[in-house]
Amino acid sequence: MLVPLTNWQNPAKRRLEAIRAAHERDEEKLLELHQAYLVLKGRKRASLSPKTLELYRVGVRDFLAWSWPPASPGPRVEILKATSDDLDHWITELQTQGSHLNTQRTPLKPGSIATYLAAVRSFYRALSWAGATELPEVSAPRDPTPAHERRPALPLELYRKLLAHLEASPEPAHRRDHLAVRLMGEAGLRISEVVHLKVSDLQLEERLLQVQGKGGKRRSVPLSRSLALELDRWLKQRLAYAKAGEARVLLNLGGRKGHGRGMSEKALREALGRHYRDLGFPPRYHGAHMLRHTAGTRFYKTSRDLHATARLLGHANINTSAIYAKMDLEGLFEVVDRLEE
After folding, report:
1. Which residues contact 335 (CB under 8 A, 6 or more apart)?
2. Cys-Cys crosslink for 87: which of 138, 182, 220, 229, Cβ 3.0 to 4.6 Å?
């Protein structure tokens, strides 16, 4: 939900309110300023995704909890006077102890710390926009693990095992999950794109999907013949469950709250997690985005064309797609196995 932007449009009032909120630790008002800045001045402005906004909100709240714990009568670090050394201290605690918002704290991974720091950088840009302070310079810790090792693709053998597991059950929820897995693992959709896919986005006679991607960008995604047929079968089956007016392709089914309504990311992640556990997949191969990596790896292995891979996945820069050339673990096994011939 957008904040009332009119509260922050007057520069003089904006400065006074930002300073007051920082001195009084008015968390909601500081978060409101941050959101107003992101919507009015940020790179994506009003097209900023709710997920990014939520992640940034968590990062800023963690920093506020560190700099001025809610139960403390005063700050350990004054928000408007924080230096790069102060932010380095906060980052060190994230690395060694974890989030300040959780009672059971475990060290954060470098990727999570980078997200938290990006949130706090934009928070200080918001305070600078308000004329209250300047942005301290600080860098996120480098993750020594290569990106293709941190975010692996699901090996084809396990991918086929997952599909066979879902095919073995006549349950409508398993039919739905089978389709969701294929949309991510073969069409390369993100989980957010899958759950927000509408019936009107399907052009099955042309074997195309119209997908709303990151930053509101739309792209056409070609479908294999078998995936187009599966979508057509699902559209007929979903008629028995969809609530009146529900436009989304994937539905909550069974005893879940909102039966017959569009499925959420959380619900789909939970469903995938159950399937991974049932199959005994290693923790390395849990998650939803891994399936998109599976698709990217297969796109590149089949085409050896980064431009085609980038277009299929909706990447604006082919350098983003280059990671899939390194994710081809099966290709590495083929090289190793040839050594024994």
Report:
1. none
2. 138
Give per-residue burial for 131-143: e unless 16+ CB within 10 Å, then b.
Answer: ebbebbebebeee
**Residue 238: other Cβ atoms inside 10 A:** 21
Closest CA to 57 of 44, 48, 69: 48
Task: Check residue 51 and give its pLDDT.
Answer: 82
* C-alpha pair distances (Å), 168 with each of 92, 104, 172, 230, 264: 48, 39, 12, 15, 24
175, 206 contact by CB (below 8 A): no
Residue 241, both tokens? 């469950």
CA–CA distance, 229 with 220 (Å, rounded to integer): 18
From CA 266, how far away is CA 269, in angstroms rounded? 5
- Pick the more confident residue, 274 or 45: 274
- Domains of the chain in start order, with CATH, are 5-144 (no CATH), 150-338 (1.10.443.10)
Helix axes 50-67, 84-96, angle to 10 degrees: 100
Asked whether 271 and 173 are in contact (CB, 8 A), the reply is: yes
